[in-house]
Design brief:
Order of helices and strands of chain A: EEEEEEEEEE
Structural class of chain A: mainly beta
CATH architecture of chain B: 3-Layer(aba) Sandwich
Shape of chain B: globular
Number of domains of chain B: 1
Strand content of chain A: 35-45%
Largest sheet of chain A: 5 strands, mixed, barrel
Number of helices of chain B: 13
Helix content of chain B: 25-40%
Number of strands of chain A: 10
Distance between the termini of chain A: 51 Å
Largest sheet of chain B: 9 strands, mixed
Number of helices of chain A: 0
Oligomer: heterodimer
CATH topology of chain B: Peroxisomal Thiolase, Chain A, domain 1
Amino acid sequence: MAVIEDPVTEQVPVAEDLFRVTADGAALVGTRCTGCGTHYFPKSLSCRNPRCEAKAVEQVDLGRSGRLYSYTVQAYRPPALFRTDSWAPYAIGLVELPEGLRVLAMLVGSELSDLRIEMPLELAVHVLYRDDQGRDVVTYAYAPPAGGGAS
Amino acid sequence: MRPVYVLGVGAHPWGKFPDKPQLQLAIEALTAAIADAGVGWRDLEGLVAASSRFEGGMGWGLHANEVMQAVAETGAPAINVGGGCAAGGIAVHTAASMVASGECEVIAALGAERMPKGFIPRPPGIPDDITDTDFLRWVAVGATNPAYWALEARRRMHDFGTTAETFAMASVLMHQNAVGNPLARYRTACTVDDVLRSPTVSDPLHLLEICAVSDGAAAVVLGSEAQARRLGGPLVQVAGSAIATGQFGDPAVRIPTVSMNADTSVQHTSEVGGAVSAALAAAGMGTSDVDLLEMADNSAWHVLAWPEQFGFLEPGQADWMIEHGELGIEGKLPINPSGGFLSFGEATTAQGVLQVCELTWQLRQQAQGRQVPGAKVGLSAVLGLGANGASVVLKA
């Protein structure tokens, strides 16, 4: 019996412990303070709230959805640390999360001219480039909800 | 605490100087400041230098030691202070504190910088993982510094209806002010059309609405009232100075982070706002006592937003002010008569010292070509990596 090669290209995150893909879709990997409930992204060593004495944090998934607080279209290619196979001007958003955080992220799945402050967004995984082992290197990004996202 | 006075100021012009080492820029600026004060190297009872990560300082940020070893080995204390791009302001505050405490009669503060070209690279030896947000902002988002300022600018358009033309007017004003300043790097006046036709960098900001990086150096000599009176120059007092760090919940899009716990009840850019408030309090003054600001305008957005955030204007008021010429040299609240970062380019650690030099020239009525009429009180404000802020209030 012939072995059928997996047609799905293996994906690796651009940085470990930054986000993960679960049965419910992508989620950012962050922390939540067990004392004051403040969320952090990426994972924090401690709680930064000066009014909180607990300073104990636990890992949580967060940021599955949010709203666009602001955005920019980056017209120049960033320095080489930012690696992408398909360079074109792209949007960076500041996304307001229900967990009380604003997160910086690439915006995908939308025409640049369709971006609107306050538009609803969902977390997605975006392929930046294919590495020399043939794997897709992916980052977290936000995109309009698949169903059109009326709200 | 006793009063502190500016005895002398000096600066090397801003630009690109591939043939001049950082140490030479430093020595030239300090030599000019000492000459302006009318003191000698042997009179300095201390030297406070802003530590740079780019050049000089023997790789340990020992920039004050390096200057003293090169020019005058007097045995006086060398103090090297870090603070990213706010280090120059922190150096001035430190020097002022050493005079105020009675530790020194005469002391100098120095910032000198030669910047690498283009985007500022990450320091060597930092791990490539989630513990370094400067790594994450590049690899995961590709967020350049102008992208952070652009996110603020876009939000301002949403909140206050600021237009692309109004942002462009901020750039036009900074370039107009610099025409009269021989220390500035870019001294050609431009129009709103020129700004809007310059290439878009991070929408809505254009090339002429963000600061370049430059080489430059500035120094100030501070001293006691007795020294100031002995030297007989025009009396300019350090009425107040302060440094601060950022507060939890600050809604600013802080470089190089990728997230923030935004709490709208916390002051925006609180490291600078905190320093400004504390410096004014130390001076026993309020915002209405200030005749002019020298503040870090990394982008056109800063020119409009910072005076509002620090209480000099109401939120959104800067648009009307700039459209009516009120932020200009002859206006109600002159911003950066020097021409600011947009006309100098940022020589990071030198910038906070240069601001104090410019305020001194303004209060002495020596700012030929850019003089704010009758200026009596000036305030500086500068921001640095690590959520550092510094502010100095000078009074004639």
